[in-house]
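The pair is listed for reference:
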Amino acid sequence: MQPFFTTEQFTGLDGKQVSLKDSLDGCERILRDEFKDIDESNLYMIGTIDEANAKADTKVKTKDNSKDNSASKPPSDAKDKYVA
């Protein structure tokens, strides 16, 4: 789904204009299953279809960084955890 200029105030995302050629290219690529391994959320609120790949790459890098940061943290004690 493309972010629209008319919904900027509701979504907080800038609207994007995509040419008819790029829209049709994106639809064809989706129908050819080119993005079958990409999470559906990466296709939401993008302009051109190439933004889906960029969005997926960004999420992977973010996950990798969070794994690296969590590995350097010392484990917490069990007594610090709340048990219901």
